[in-house]
Fold this sequence. Notes:
Elements: H1 2-34, H2 43-63, E1 67-69, E2 72-74, H3 77-99
Antiparallel strand pairs: 1-2
Helix pairs in contact: 1-2, 1-3, 2-3
Amino acid sequence: MIEGQNLLEAILTTLVTGLSIYLLVMLAYVIFSWVPRPPEPLVPIRLGSAALVDPLMRPLRGIIPPLKLGGIALDLSIIVLFIAVRLLIWILGGLADAVR
């Protein structure tokens, strides 16, 4: 049974690490959304972050309308996604600690 606990702990820790990296990718996505035309060497990073974040944001954008503030519209879906990923990290980290 101890080996099974070690495996579960390793899986949970890997998931937490992957989600933490995903948070950084989401941060890069937000930063690049503010830059209309990033320098040429950064374009692959912008495209990569969009390819990883857009599939999860697309359904959220259909549910959560943008918040209109005067002449701009604030996309709240990225904030909801940040909260959801952070909540998942918290839950999985707690489970990993409980398994130890």
